[in-house]
Amino acid sequence: MFGSNTPEPPRVTAERPGGPLIVTEDERLLDDLLRLCAAAGSEPEVVFTAPPRASSWDSAPLVLVGAEATERVRGAARRKGVLLIGRDLDDSEVWRRALDIGADHVLLLPDAETWLVDRIADIAEGVGQPALTIGVVGGRGGAGASTLACALAVTAARAGRRTMLVDGDPLGGGLDILVGAERTGGLRWPDLADSRGRVNSGALEESLPRLESLSVLSWDRGDSVLIPAQAMRSVLGAARRRGGVVVVDLPRRVDEAVAETLAQIDVGLLVVPAELRAVAAATRVAAAVSMVLKDLRVVARGPFAAGLDDRETARLVGLPLAGELPLESRAVDALSGGGPPGSSGRGPLARFCTAFLAQALAGGGSVPV
Fold this sequence. Notes:
Blueprint: E1 21-24, H1 27-39, E2 45-48, H2 54-59, E3 63-66, E4 82-86, H3 93-101, E5 105-108, H4 113-125, E6 132-138, H5 145-158, E7 163-167, H6 175-178, H7 189-192, H8 201-207, E8 210-211, E9 214-217, H9 229-241, E10 245-250, H10 256-263, E11 267-273, H11 276-289, E12 296-301, H12 310-317, E13 321-325, H13 329-338, H14 347-362
Parallel strand pairs: 1-2, 1-3, 3-4, 4-5, 6-10, 6-11, 7-9, 7-10, 11-12, 12-13
Antiparallel strand pairs: 8-9
Helix pairs in contact: 5-14, 8-9, 9-10
């Protein structure tokens, strides 16, 4: 894929898990729990005024036990994922009952409804390990941040990882053009600007322009240049729940929407050309971004002059060094028709992306300094 003759590894699709098991003797509580399951897109198994079968108890991804029904499950095997559901804040016995059945949490409705819907929806979507989320920002205009963001996403996709490339800069010209997906059908940011609350991660992935394993969320050619903070929180949260790798191309300013983005990023890369003016500009960008994102690294971009190598560039900016990107003539060829950045799998850009992703994925999102 992406100009490579290497066969793409098969995509593995996890089997959709079943819904939660509800054990209750309270018709009103049952109605509420069924409503919350429907809101989460999940179909539960219900056991009303009876003990659950051992097979149902053991296999259910989540068990919701009414506070009035704990006697029905007292002899059941201890397991994770049992939630005790009550209503009465003054019921001092609810905590003892939770201890008796080995419940993980006690939830009191209606206050805990939002938390419970999210938990049920996680089960319905088959949510596992959240995506490694990487933010890329330029130390100055033309630093090559978009190129690096695309190359990281392309490299992850070439390795068979579920990957999403998110264009967080409405004034950047459109990452879909950079990867060659400008004519590919699918939703763009203006279509998602009204997103609120929880966005289904599978539906999001299926709705975006795709290039094999790579999904791209970019801008259309319209006049809209605003990502509401709530939309960014909802959409990026859905992307992360889908797992794999998410790469976000960031603008150099930090507004409310960008702050929401930075709050969900595991590691940030600040691309800094090895020039004194670029270092000065990058220092200001780093100060703003670091107020929200604590793990920000410098990627020093060549050519390097005497006395200003990669380590000195990072030292002057005041951040750890993630690595260097020497001048690469092949990048120009890739952009002019040879494929998206990083698609050849060769050269300094591809080598940096491969090494960085290997470190980050091995560390579960924690990249050694």
